Amino acid sequence: MPKDHGIGASSKRREDVRFLTGTGNYTDDINARGQAYVHFLRSDVAHGRITNIDTTAASEMPGVVRIFTGADFEGIGSIPCGWQVTDRFGEVMHEPPHPVLAQGKVRHVGDPIAAIVADTLAEARDAAEAIELDIEELPAVVNMKDALKDDAPKVHDDLPGNLCYDWGFVEENREAVDKAIKEAAHVTTLELVNNRLIANPMEPRVALGEYNRANDESTLYTTSQNPHVIRLLMGAFVLGIPEHKLRVVAPDVGGGFGTKIFHYAEEAFCTFAARQLARPVKWTSTRSEAFMSDAHGRDHVTKIELALDKDNNFVALRTDTLANMGAYLSTFAPSVPTWLHGTLMAGNYKTPLIYVNVKAVFTNTVPVDAYRGAGRPEATYQLERVVDKAARELGVDPIALRRQNFITEFPYQTPVAVEYDTGDYPATMDKLEEIADIAGFAARRKESEAKGRLRGLGVNCYIEACGIAPSNLVGQLGARAGLYESATVRVNATGSISVMTGSHSHGQGHETAFPQVVAEMLGIPEDQIDIVHGDTARVPMGMGTYGSRSLAVGGSAMVRATEKIINKAKKIASHLMEASEADIELKDGQFTVAGTDKSVAWGDVTLAAYVPHNYPLEDIEPGLEETAFYDPSNFTYPSGAYACEVELDPETGRVTIERFSAADDFGNIINPMIVSGQVHGGIAQGVGQALMEGCVYDENGQLLSASYMDYAMPRADDVPFYSVDHSCVTPCTHNPLGVKGCGEAGAIGSPPAVINAVVDAMQSGGHDVTHIDMPASPSRVWAAMNG
Amino acid sequence: MYNFDVVTPKTVADAVAALGEEDAQALGGGQTLIPTLKQRLASPSKLVSLTGIDEIKGIRTDESGTLCIGGGTTHGTIAGEGSAYPALAALAGNIGDPAVRNRGTIGGSLANNDPSACYPAAVLASGATIVTNTREIAADDYFQGMFTTALEEAEIITEVRFPVPEKAYYQKFEQPASRFSLVGVFVAKYADGVRVAVTGASNDGVFRWTEAETALSSNFSADALDGLAASADDMIADMHGSAAYRAHLIGVLTKRAVAAAG
């Protein structure tokens, strides 16, 4: 029987009741008395010099409170970057300033130039049209290879060549890798593009700044995955507001996918303007603004070479990647193509020699930063594509080639810095072959061919580094933050519990899954436990949610705090039952004395803690509330094997996904239903990237895919019913729950499966096509098959 | 949006009168105009909503068997009640999503003449007649290029009259993002010949593929199209497909439409 509560139960998502009945409390639902509205006048050219900006007439327009320009932000900090990469020559990366409002130059379509605060949004928009603005348009640079040329337009005037950094990893391996590739029996080479994406969370970004003159406190309500990080970045680096005078609240958030990690200019503006005007200031992004102001994702161009010996063992791997930073460095942008990407290039394989080179490039495009998976999808895609290509070149079964090269002994120290603690790659591949019915593929291909369709099968493995991250390690790697997590477990007098967590739920289901853990530990019902998150005034300093870290890091903090609760409660129980503390056991919400029939209920102990009449006051304090900060000792390493089957209409090039199977090892599972949901959503995003989504700029830096008319988001009927399995479990060895994280796996693991399947389908039709770039849209597939 | 006034007349005559004012703009189902207004790309002083005019709504079959559809009839109504012309009803039922189909109207679509819209293919392939408050316009005269029609200022489409063919089928290939037709081909077989109209593909908007019409008029089968290829000249080329791809799709979709028409 499956469990019906606690760890391992598919408890229904309690938060969905409010989401599905329209009673969620999103940032745009919050309105402050007397609030004004801000409209941002944004650049409609990709690159230009502001030669004149005159707001005099516009300021006289009806309802206008004040118009701000870059000049109002002189002396105010730059939007900071949270990660400093050191290049392969030992120099730190170039880090050009990122003003809240453009100063002198605009560098991408959507760059904010002026902010018009008015009584109504319509008045603000009217006034924006009355601003006299002259921009001398400059040549724009969009393509990364062009940007690196000596004579390329300079995105930042003092940065010739537009190079942010040239990173080598592991630099000491460079020559050995070159030599191994030169001497190898076979080398498979692949050049590919990891297509630029726009995250498109259902809820656009919103910011509402408030200022209380009575106590000099600022409050920012914002659509963030990590309110404490915003408080730190904005307070300390941009506006100079100390933490105790700055509260950041991220209430219900309608999807993040990474793009709501970062600190954005609009947040700083609303907080700043509210102080200046002593009036609340609100901004709600339109969908069109989101396309040109939310950080984009991916956008790598890579050449990868895989060397094999005569027995098809992988002997060396070398990659050259250009990574687009956009016009400015977004919060974690430098880390994505480096430490979240290079460290994963071993994949599931025991390749002994690996060298990764990444050149990060500025262009006149929207900043690029982490998007679901962040670096790890890029690593997985290139590796699993080149392995598949190698199998085809060598005429061996792609699954067999992978199995032959699997890492099988753990812990495993990769040649790219990380140490995998645990895993069982043959087991997930076995499970995949079973649930995907690989053996039945040939028959299904015949059926498709009888209908005039080509059918392809694509398989791949993936590994990711999640549970981000050990603070001392990431500090050495350039992080300007720690990546621990916090939890306070507050037990109330009657035994109910509030857990304040630094993790942030924006769709993940923490409000359901986290109580399952505490309920299991204490033996009390889940509905006695509530989760509090998303408010710096209520939650201890925490680092938020991204990198599949919430349960592995935030959950571990919660476990540690709950252990402290149990320890103290046992002391109280031992006093109440006049027994030795060592003999106290807690089970099903009852404290008992081992070997006796004495017992005291959870609620009696919690009441005693707050009404300490009969209480060991000489030994312990009243109350029952504990806080823990948990800093992981390693990343976690979820892994798995995915299979995709496509049908391809050779006349139109249209690809449809007929089957998709995922066998994942997430370590221990708290709520299987939520895990399945996370995998489903991740695969939909991966399928979207592989077949549909593509952010397109023209050569002048105009965003062509600027709305849903041209940016193709996957819809329900674009994806099949998935077959997902997470019964292969090798628990994480270094966190108390043995969990690894599941939020990004689907998006990391699915694109190569889809493209491998599309290539397989094309080849089955006699087309000599060895690669197709994403998105494999109908026109691209048709063009690939027709030269 | 900019500020504007809205009136909702009850008769065509009142609507025409209202449209006589400077910068007045007719509003059908609003599926194109409202997003345009939201983006501040249009600034009419007055919107004349046609949604209150009962005389331009509904579907009837006249004594000659012609299917007559009021200009203010929604896609949803045509999908549900247009069974006298199954290919047309199916076309309507595949436009957008239910919210779009419950607001958008055939008259609005035809007046806008989006080069990727579906109805123009049906109207042109059917040799339909566009009836306005002032005249009747043959389909062959009505479509005059992308977003351009024979309509004059303040002229309102009151009815569209479709001769019902013996056989017909609309084969749509969706643009992946918008789900408008990347290419759509409407094939209609009448006693006096076959008409083939193509939408989505051309820089000139909907057009008739006359070579295919000739071939199919003598032999209404997909095989009759073997060796025929639409020209890539003047085809739309964008991120969703090259001119050559669109030209190729015309051939594929026409064959499929003929096969499906039976």
UniProtKB/TrEMBL annotation, chain A:
Gene Ontology MF terms in the entry:
iron ion binding; oxidoreductase activity
Keyword Oxidoreductase listed:
yes
Q: Which InterPro entries match?
A: Ald_Oxase/Xan_DH_a/b, Ald_Oxase/Xan_DH_a/b_sf, Ald_Oxase/xanthine_DH-like, AldOxase/xan_DH_MoCoBD1, AldOxase/xan_DH_MoCoBD2, AldOxase/xan_DH_Mopterin-bd_sf
Q: Record's SMART domains?
A: Ald_Xan_dh_C (SM01008)
Q: Which terms are listed as keywords in the entry?
A: Molybdenum, Oxidoreductase
Q: Which Pfam families match?
A: Ald_Xan_dh_C (PF01315), MoCoBD_1 (PF02738), MoCoBD_2 (PF20256)
Q: Which intervals hold domain Aldehyde oxidase/xanthine dehydrogenase a/b hammerhead?
A: 21-139
Name used for this protein in its record? Xanthine dehydrogenase, molybdenum binding subunit apoprotein
Organism ancestry: Bacteria, Pseudomonadati, Pseudomonadota, Alphaproteobacteria, Rhodobacterales
Automatic annotation (TrEMBL), chain B:
Database matches in SUPFAM superfamilies:
CO dehydrogenase flavoprotein C-terminal domain-like, FAD-binding/transporter-associated domain-like
- One Pfam family from the UniProt entry? FAD_binding_5
Q: Which GO terms describe its molecular function?
A: FAD binding; oxidoreductase activity
Domain FAD-binding PCMH-type per the UniProt entry, residue ranges: 1-167
Q: Which UniProt keywords apply?
A: FAD, Flavoprotein, Oxidoreductase
Q: Which Gene3D superfamilies match?
A: 3.30.465.10, CO dehydrogenase flavoprotein, C-terminal domain (3.30.390.50), Uridine Diphospho-n-acetylenolpyruvylglucosamine Reductase, domain 2 (3.30.43.10)
Protein name listed in UniProt: Carbon-monoxide dehydrogenase medium subunit
Originating species: Primorskyibacter flagellatus
Organism ancestry: Bacteria, Pseudomonadati, Pseudomonadota, Alphaproteobacteria, Rhodobacterales
